[in-house]
Amino acid sequence: MKIVSVGEVLWDILPSSEHLGGAPFNFAWHAHNLGHEVCFVSAVGNDQHGRAAIEQMVKSRLSARFIRRVPDQPTGTVTIALDSQGLPHYTIHRPAAYDFPALSAAEFNALVNPTPAWIYFGTLQQMSAPAHDLTLQLMAAAPAASYFYDINLRVGSFTPELVRTLARHAHILKLNEQEVSALKEISGLQGDSLEQFCRSCLSAFQLDAVCITLGSKGCALLMDNQYLEAPGFSVKVADTIGAGDAFSAALIHGISAGWSAERIATFANRIGALVTSQPGGTPKWTVAEAMGL
After folding, report:
1. Measuring CA to CA, how many Å separate 239 from each of 19, 36, 56, 82, 218?
2. Which residue has the higher pLDDT, 85 or 78?
3. Which of 84, 95, 98, 248 makes the best surface tag, with the fewest CB within 10 Å?
């Protein structure tokens, strides 16, 4: 199926290595790995990092057609420190090229004709007015698409109003366990249990589904009025970068295939766990490896 992913592409700068990433890019890469036609909309600078990003996309056969080259802004970078459990802590360097995406009329038409099945977006890039306006234009031009919002909050890279606006546009909302309390505060949502929170969230934003990733514990999913918690899979963790983005790609894959909620959640947990067992946000993997966990 055709998926449009709008968001940041950047380099994750770790103590001993660099990896191409950014949640929307990671998502696009993993959705492409699942066999879908992915149109990734972003921007890079006219610098070595930008050229390397395009080269990696081409090498991976992920289309770079909708990546703008911005001559006066650097390609995005994030400095990442890992704690003792392999959990990342981010320092985001902005402004960056990904804050300034733009499309020609022909490129815009190609994105919305034929209509994509999904439009995916997060929060970080949407702080940029050009990026936010472009995303709203794409959604307005593709009303038959489903909209997937991965909250993915980063310190200093969201406002309560923006999060509420994006959530109201979404059909599917995905967040992690740490973001539950933030969304409660942002939107005044109630619920002492995860199920109560999911139901409150679904009602408040008129969503089709809500999913909360729970790290090694798996995930919670509410869809088709069915709530479940699916256990995770035990793996030796290299790092958790990109695991949630791979999970999102698997979630969309299962929903579009018409699978049951339990099958969707279990499959997404498998893919997310497999990605944590390898370094970086876009390691190579196969569905067969995930099913072997």
Report:
1. 12, 26, 21, 8, 16
2. 78
3. 84
Query: SS3 breakdown of the chain: % helix, strand, coil, rounded to 5?
Result: 40, 25, 35
Query: What pTM was computed for the model?
Result: 0.95
Query: Average per-residue pLDDT in the chain?
Result: 95
Residues 121-161: tens digit of each pLDDT: 999 999 999 999 999 999 999 999 999 999 999 988 999 99
What CATH number should be reported for the domain holding residue 101?
3.40.1190.20
pLDDT at 148: 98
Confidence (pLDDT) at 279: 86
How many independent structural domains does the chain possess?
A: 1
Question: Using CA atoms, how far apart are residues 194 and 214, in angstroms rounded to an integer?
Answer: 11
DSSP state, 233?
-
Cα separations (Å) of 153 from 23, 76, 137, 175, 179?
11, 17, 23, 9, 7
Cα angle: 245, vertex 249, 76; to 5 degrees: 40
207 DSSP 8-state letter: -
Give the residue numbers spanning the domain of 202.
Answer: 2-291
